[in-house]
Amino acid sequence: MLGGLLRFLSACGGSWQTSPAPPHAAGPPSDPASDSSASEGRDGLLWWRDLARCAAGDASAALVQANHTLEDQCRLHSAPPLGTLLAVLDGHAGHAAARFACDHLLPALLEAASGPGGVTADAIRDAFAATEAAFIAQVSSQWDTNPDLATVGSCCLVGVVHDQTLFVANLGDSRAVLGKKVGRSGQIVAEQLSTEHNANHEAVRQELMAQHPDDPQIVALKHGVWRVKGIIQVSRSLGDAYLKDAKYNTERIKPKFRVSEPFSRPIMSAEPTIVSRSLEPSDCFVIFASDGLWEHLTNQEAVEIVHNNQRAGSARRLIKAALQEAARKREMRYSDLMRIDKKVRRHFHDDITVIVLFINHELLAKGNAQVPPLSIRSALDH
């Protein structure tokens, strides 16, 4: 079955290559359950930080690459006065917007929260707006030399824990899922905290049609997938200037991105959906992940995997579970999937980024000055 699938991919114009195993490992990446002593590491296309203490508790992060050029980024920052910030950036049509957001969103949030109001939903919204404006300014300044930058965008999922309040802000279709205990038995259940901006959701299509009542083609079904203008699945993002300002939708960009008819108002939005929640003792952990994880795991499956295993390696464990499911869907072995090189790997799964935050309520009650500052950024070659 695997041979037949690879012949099919070759016929589609791709070549099948395997990544050689590094000298210290003859097989696929080790299972975090048997390798919990490795706090941070890399194995082929997989990077992880198994466990780190932050002001809100403990965090586990991991990322696996599938695209030829990595389009995902993640960042975790913990220090006064902000508290704990987690960001999952899922780029599309290139890596530039995700890397830009990873570099600039945190400083923008620190600046926005430095006023008398501190960390609020409005401050987070201002940080998103400032980051978007800065990226669009870069698109404008490079328009003559690099017009393709106008077609690059990124989904942005941000979590902020300040004092004992959790803020979740989202652009696109990454997802934040809370694991909480309910009932006397302490059963763990999943609660989705983020709102997804993907045209495959009926509510998103209705929103777009209401915003563009004069455009019957604002959403189109192509090959069984709903897309905005028949081009892109997400309706909100950072970047994607070509769908926000008609001056970037010209013959200078690739034909697949062009909108045939003129438009006078933005088709896509950079306005994040923001929710805030006072953390309760029953709130155990939050999973922040790009859509590559949720293509293969349900919310409940993910929280049960985290709940039923040790904390160290939780993010890596979730990625392994998703890749095992991706392999099963293609009737191949997980070990064979892990040997397929980047770019060809994209036929099987997307770049996947996961951060799991384990909430320490006692630590939060004491204040974030109790824990040394922490800064983590995914460390994969691109």
Automatic annotation (TrEMBL):
Residues 58-359 form the PPM-type phosphatase domain. Residues 18-41 are annotated as: Disordered. GO terms for molecular function: metal ion binding; protein serine/threonine phosphatase activity. It catalyses: O-phospho-L-seryl-[protein] + H2O = L-seryl-[protein] + phosphate; O-phospho-L-threonyl-[protein] + H2O = L-threonyl-[protein] + phosphate. Its EC number is 3.1.3.16. One of its GO terms (biological process) is regulation of intracellular signal transduction. It holds the Pfam family PP2C. Keywords: Hydrolase, Magnesium, Manganese, Metal-binding, Protein phosphatase. Residues 20-31 have a biased composition (Pro residues). Its cofactor is Mn(2+); Mg(2+). It is an enzyme of class 3 (hydrolase). Belongs to the PP2C family. This is protein-serine/threonine phosphatase.
